[in-house]
C-alpha cells in the first residue's frame, strides 16, 4: 500500500470535536506545527512557518483523544497524510492537509502526563471457571494429558 505515513510534533490548536457516528466514535482537531531554526544574525532561536493539519481519529482513539487533549498542549501525531483540493466560495485550488491518525500522544519532552487505561466495555457474564493451578514447579512435567501452565518469570522476555 502506497500511503504517506508521517509523524508531526506540534500543539493542539482547536478543541477536539467528538461525534458518535454510524461507524463508531469519531473526533477531529487541528494541530499547529511550527518549524524552529537558529538565526545566526540574532544568535537566537526563531519561529519559521506554521503548518496546520486537521487530525481525524476513530473508534477508541477518538474517545481517548477527546477526553485527553486540550488547546495548547504539546502532542505527537502519527498517521496517514490526506491532501484534498476543492473549490470553496467560487475559489478553485483550496487545499487542506488532513491526518488520519493511528496514534496520538502528549510530547513528554515538553512536560509530564499521567496515563490511565481506558475501561473496557462491559462483556457478557461467562460461567465461572476454576482458577488454573499456577504453582507448577520448574523441571516437573505436568501429568499426562495436561498442559504446562507455568508462567514465565515477570522479568523474562516473552516472544
From TrEMBL:
Pfam families: SSB. Gene3D superfamilies: Nucleic acid-binding proteins (2.40.50.140). PROSITE patterns: SSB (PS50935). InterPro entries: NA-bd_OB-fold, Primosome_PriB/ssb, ssDNA-bd. GO terms for molecular function: DNA binding. The keyword DNA-binding applies. Residues 114-159 are annotated as: Disordered. Residues 134-151 have a biased composition (Polar residues). The keyword DNA-binding applies. Keywords: DNA-binding. Homotetramer. This is Single-stranded DNA-binding protein.
